[in-house]
Structures are given as C-alpha cells and as structure tokens.
Automatic annotation (TrEMBL):
UniProt xrefs under InterPro entries: 4CMD/NDH-1_regulator, AhpD-like, CMD-like
Stretches assigned to the Carboxymuconolactone decarboxylase-like domain: 25-96, 148-219
Gene3D superfamilies referenced in this protein's UniProt entry, alphabetically: AhpD-like (1.20.1290.10)
Protein name per Swiss-Prot or TrEMBL: Carboxymuconolactone decarboxylase family protein
Amino acid sequence: MTLPTLTTVQELDPVFGEMSTATFRLAGEWQGLTAREQSLLSLVADVCEQILGVPFELHVRAALNNGLDADDLRELLRFISYDSGYPAALAALDRLTEIEREHGLPGPTGQSHRVDADGTGSPLPAAMRAEVQALDPDFADYMDLQSRMRAGMSRISVRERAFATMTVDVLYQTLQESFRAHVGRALGAGATPDEVRAAVRATAVFGMTRTWRALHVLDALLAEREREREQDATAAGGRR
C-alpha cells in the first residue's frame, strides 16, 4: 500500500479534486514560508481539527519529502500538545504510528530532549509569569511545567515552534494573550512581519473566515509594535 496523493482526492470526486488542486496551487505560490514550515503547519492544523484521515497522510508524506523524519514529527506533536490539548496530540501520535506501520516507513530512533518534569523554575517571561500567577496560581504552575518540559527541544526551531503555536491560535481563535505572545516569539526569533503574516495566511486552507479574523488582529499587533519602536527610537534620540 502506498501513501495517498492528490490523485486519491481526484478519484473521490473529480470536481472537488479540481478545486483542491487550484486552491493548493495558489497557496503554494505564497511567499514567506519554507516548504518544511508549510508541512509542519499543515500537520499542526490536522491535530487541532482532528483531521487524521487522508489529509493527515498527505501531510505526513509532504513532511517526509521536505526532510522531516519520525523523530521530528514526534517532537512537533509533543511540543504542540500543551496548546492543542494532550488528547488531540495523542490521537495524532497514534495515527502517525499506524501510518508508519501500514506503509513500512522508518519509525522513530528515540532521539529526543530531556524532559525536566521534576525541575523548578520557569522559562516563561517574568512579566507573563507574574500576570498568570495573579490570575490563578495553580494554572501558573501548570504553565510552568508545560514550558519547562519543552525547554530542551531542538529538532524543531524556535521560529517553527512560534509559527506552530500561532497556527493553533488561529484555528482555536485564541487571538488575545497567547497570540500576542506567539507573534512576539516569532519576531524575536528573526521572522519578519511579512513572514509572520505568511504563517497566518497559511491557515486559510483550513478555514478562511478564521484566517480573516486573525489577519485583522495581526495587523493591530504589528501596528502597535511599530508605534512602540518609533517611540523608543524618539526617546533614545532625546537622551543623546
């Protein structure tokens, strides 16, 4: 048995196949993301939406073709489990293992990071940590644990992780505190505003109206950051 391809979609319904081909051709022409990043974000969307049938298999194929391996895919699922929810990530992990077994694909080698579950402290920014602590101390402890357990991850880059969490935000429409933090993380990892916009735009094939709303929120965030940058530059000039 081979992994499904776009031909599989056309065989299900030629008209839907034609629409899909045109849609993904246009999306493939958008600039700002690498093929690897596009593959990762498609898999994140599958987890959030629990689309674990043919689309998930297509995206696994694309990820493997773009240089990702079984260990990378597992790190992605481990990473997003705290935002997508552990049950959703677990269902995807189970399906991924099934796909590997069904199609004779290389499985994981066991390469992973150290899980600092019994450690102390938090890699969260101090201001965010204080805000969440004031909101609910037990929830703050939960966030500390989730962040600490992921601090040693390295197979998926910081930029890719930021884009992945932004994708969760768009699909779950959590466009307040977490979206702001994740956009800031992407920019801090060196992504340009246009690349951040591309990561949001990439979610359109999973639900256009949510992307529309997210782009409005992103515009406001980027404009706010630009105003702050200009104010800082003006203040710095005044101190000279």
